[in-house]
Amino acid sequence: MSRSHEPATRVAGADLQTFMERALARCEADEASCRAVARALVTASRMGTDSHGLRLLPHYVRAVQGGRINPRPAMRFTRRLPGTGYLDADDGFGHLAGFTAIEHAISMAEEIGIGAVAVGRSSHFGAAGCYALEAAQRGYVGLSVCNADALVSLHHGQGPFYGTNPIAFAAPVPNQPPYLLDMATSSIPWNRVKQYAAIGRELPPDVVVDRQGNLTTDASQAVSLLPLGGADFGFKGAGLAGMVEVLSATLTGMIHGFRMLPMSGEDMSTPRGVGHFFLVMRPDAFVERDIFDRGMLDYLEDLRAQPALEGREVLAPGDREWRCQARRDAEGIPLDSANVVAYAELAEELAMPALS
Amino acid sequence: MSRSHEPATRVAGADLQTFMERALARCEADEASCRAVARALVTASRMGTDSHGLRLLPHYVRAVQGGRINPRPAMRFTRRLPGTGYLDADDGFGHLAGFTAIEHAISMAEEIGIGAVAVGRSSHFGAAGCYALEAAQRGYVGLSVCNADALVSLHHGQGPFYGTNPIAFAAPVPNQPPYLLDMATSSIPWNRVKQYAAIGRELPPDVVVDRQGNLTTDASQAVSLLPLGGADFGFKGAGLAGMVEVLSATLTGMIHGFRMLPMSGEDMSTPRGVGHFFLVMRPDAFVERDIFDRGMLDYLEDLRAQPALEGREVLAPGDREWRCQARRDAEGIPLDSANVVAYAELAEELAMPALS
């Protein structure tokens, strides 16, 4: 672990990956689970998606130690029709379920142009973008969505009903990193509310409500996130969360988010029944590949050439992430002081070498 | 045409449909085109989606008379792989392209569980919801998206880049009308800006920008819509618009919205090269149908039982539309005074019986 001129401790992605795999192996996780979780968390941390990166490892260790997550799942894939299938994740890690499902979706898409996999009996899968990205890096268009426990209000509702139900979409771009959208259907994540409450910082207007369902900027009073669009246009964000719910819960036969045990709840022994949904398409199943490739390049060239507001920059989905990844690959991935402590404690508890 | 106690003139859906079909037939449109356009517009007007309903007929008549839209297209569908296909719409009406494409997607989904159709060389297709709805009414999950000419800013961008690029998603619900989300990826439609400018009404904050890219609530100063999420979180709305652009333009080999001739522009003779994308899935290609059905019912029951803000109501996607449809089916579809005049002029110009 080397120190840069910035206050954060920095660590190489490969070292982080090794540490994570070892830590999970100490919890009896099988090799495939260790690899999948570490890969998803390192991918997210390299891209700067810190909320879904390395900070989650201690949580996953608790969940697998408590029995909520099955460390050695026997995941079963059933190809129900030529373009569709169901993956029973056997209460294993969502990351292994995600990479397994996207692999099946890619293989169906390769054969018949499109493939979709619904995943049931799964758990938190980290950043939704990891799985759509895997498809795009292999030359396909990918979509991944997931439901979650209730943190987000309905439009005109008082308290939380939906999870932050993310939508991730990725597409290949010739000689460039993929096009990558990975967004929660709320304006901000719950994690930010907790951070702001801890330091007494004011939230932006129109993103959270208090116990009575009224808008507040006081993070300590927040009990529910508003859907994207806020108090006036939140029917759109809530509608998108609903689409994700239908795909991730109804189409997988799982419980919907409102009935789901909270990810950060006390109960670390009961599987939560999370569902995911993945879609993969071959671009040349629709148009000739060179036309698709040229179209992506022309569109992104026009997009990046748009005049920006003063002091601002216009970016394509993914641009910020790839820039961060290049920087973190060169300088290392930063750990804040809380994570330095958490990782040191984890090493001690699991009687394994510290992250270095 | 009967007058209710409300100021609006009201007309029965069936009479409206007949008038529309006749008007388009007078413009040499073939029977399939006449039927498809009228069906899409009446469906939207019955549901209360007035921006995409009857008011569009005079526009379509001009577009087909001017040669922008081909009244007798030879649309060609190619099933490129078992789950995917391409529909060349031959510059015909987008509505005919939409119903044709969703039919092919349904038939592929029936056979292999899922079907997707990219449509190129098309035109404005009215409300995206019509086509997703058609799938849901037949028992499938449906998605339809479409790109459009530039009206919406990029996040941190100065002027318009994306169209209002709508996303429509529908799913069947046992013994209830379908679940239906149909939303533009901007907060408000451009049409509303024009209406508010005409009557000097102030817009809500955070939905439009002026020539310099600064926020304004003065509709007469608006030159671009903000993406859903507004000035702070518009990267999400713009990201969704981008996903729609990739599906509707890149995957169809069409021009992206920024390069597209404006729908409301002077040029009524040049085809615009609009693209659409449709996806259909069989629920029982993922889980047993009774599990899916029970899941939809349980989810919607919980949703509709959520406590609402005082004086407000919690609604599922589509609830508002089905309520409006029931009312309009009973009372008739309202025409405001501008549409009464426009329809009378149309009847005269086309030498056909007035709407009655």
Give a short synopsis of this structure:
By secondary structure, chain A is an alpha+beta fold.
Architecture overview:
The structure is a homodimer of 356-residue chains. Chain A is α+β, with helices and mostly antiparallel strands. Chain A has ten helices and 15 strands. In chain A, a hairpin with a 5-residue loop joins strand 1 (2-3) and strand 2 (9-11). In chain A, helix 1 (13-26) packs antiparallel against helix 2, helix 2 packs across helix 4 (94-112) and helix 4 (94-112) runs parallel beside helix 5. The relative contact order of chain A is 0.16.
Radius of gyration of chain A from CA coordinates: 20 Å
Distance separating the two termini of chain A: 4 Å
Number of strands of chain A: 15
Number of helices of chain A: 10
- How would you name the oligomeric state of the polypeptide chains in this document? homodimer
Mean pLDDT of chain A: 96
Classify the secondary structure makeup of chain A into a structural class. Answer: alpha+beta
Low-confidence stretches of chain A: 1-5
Biggest sheet record of chain A: 7 strands, mixed
Shape of chain A: globular
Strand order of the largest sheet of chain A: 3-4-5-14-6-9-10
The helix content of chain A is: 25-40%
Order of helices and strands of chain A: EEHHHEEHEHEEEEEHEEEHEHHEH
**Proportion of residues in extended strands of chain A:** 15-25%
Biggest interface and its residues per chain?
A-B, 85 and 85 residues
